[in-house]
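Hello again,

I reread your note about wanting to compare the complex against the isolated chains. To keep things tidy I'm splitting this into two emails, and this first one only covers the full assembly. Below are the input lines as submitted, including protein chains and any nucleic acid or small-molecule components. They are followed by the predicted structure of everything together. The single-chain runs will come separately.
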Amino acid sequence: MIPVFELHRPSDLDEALSLMTGLDEVACYAGGTELIQVMKMGFADARHLIDLKPIAELGGIDVLPGGALRIGATVTHRDIEHSAVVAERLPTLVALEHHVANVRIRNVGTLGGNLCFAEPHSDPATLLVACEATVTLAGEAAPRRTLSLEDFLVDAFTTDRADAEILTEVTIPALAADTRLSYRRFALTERPAVSVACRVRVVDGRLADARIVVGAVGPKAVSCRAAASLDGLSTDALRKAIGDVAVACAEEVEPLDELDLDPAYLRNLVAVHVRRALADALAEVAA
Amino acid sequence: MSSDIDLEFEVNRRPIRLDVRPNETLAAVLRNRLALTGTKVSCDAQVCGTCTVLVDGRPVSSCTFLAADARGRRVTSVEGLGDAETGHLSHVQQAFVERAAFQCGYCTPGFLVSATALLAEVPHPTREQVVEYLEGNICRCTGYEAIVSAVLDAARVGTDDGAATP
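Full-complex prediction:
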């Protein structure tokens, strides 16, 4: 049974922000796949729910001048999965979205909701941190602020969003033409047990701006420091170094204590999937 | 202090208007208010797929979908797949009967609704596409082989019936 609440349907963002500021025990939702679920389970409560779906400016997928991709907070996983614009600019995200949860959740759940919920096992968070995506937050009578997704995600189920703020959009910077992305997940349930995203640039046969992000194992998606050791390597040298880098990334991860999973097993999963994700990215470079 | 919501929507091609509580789920409204008990609730966590209904043609988990969010939308439950008046079954339902694609039958309404959505989107799926699409529907009797075969049968029959067969 979902606890009793009052439903509000503001028609624009200003009205929504004023409700967020003026009401007590208030939460906003769009798809509800996360919030309604945890309210039903007794893990969250709210006396007022604000439906963000009617607010046009929170929707839409656009290419900004300069080539960055802007995805509105209330865009569903399905909309991303089927977006021609995203398929052209960020096919790795389309492929990832195709495997998020199940088709019912993809039809209803939104990218903004997924990120605000900060579930450690979020698929999109891992890839979007690798892409150095940013999120934009609006508050009443305050200038909008934009921060990196990596900083926005503070801990498991905790973000930097203030109580009365609303996430408006996610922005993914344009990738350089020689950038390759890869994403690997290993799932025992619908949510991944481990997820790894790699971003690699290859300039004149050498790696640059390498990022390896590991999600689902620790409380939040983390960008591994070990990735910095890849910069400057030739692709041949990377092939030799890949095993050591994978182990170094695994050592940086602090596995969550859940499901009685052995941390050593989880670290091994991380190493295996970092290796595979890097190999995927390299294969793309070779192609 | 929560106010009722005047909900107007369409269920199985019939216009419906009723007052719902904000915290009522679509599954609860279908089952308890409209006596459409074909929709089952099992896991109550959007994982198992027994409560699948279509909203504007797209499958959703009605156990966690607020009834209020169905305003102005077309809802199709398992009762709306065939023709309730004549008893005529849809291609998908008929194929499930012919393949005996159920054991206990509890998951069947969800599978029927999901498969209907798949065939509307992809009329000629491969076996792999069927398996992938239905991965969010769970049959604890593990009767998946017959279910997948039935969906492929339904796709073929749907093609035979169509005037514009590719």
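For quick reference: Chain A has eleven helices and 14 strands.

B.
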